[in-house]
Amino acid sequence: MPRLRRLCHLQSLLILLTSKQDPTEIIAQQRRCRTNVIQLVNRLLISDYRALWEALPGIDLVQVVHVIGEEAVDEAIAVAPYVNGILLDSGNPNLVVKKLKMMSDET
Question: Staple partner for 84: which of 3, 23, 58, 60, CB 3.0–4.6 Å?
Answer without folding.
Answer: 60
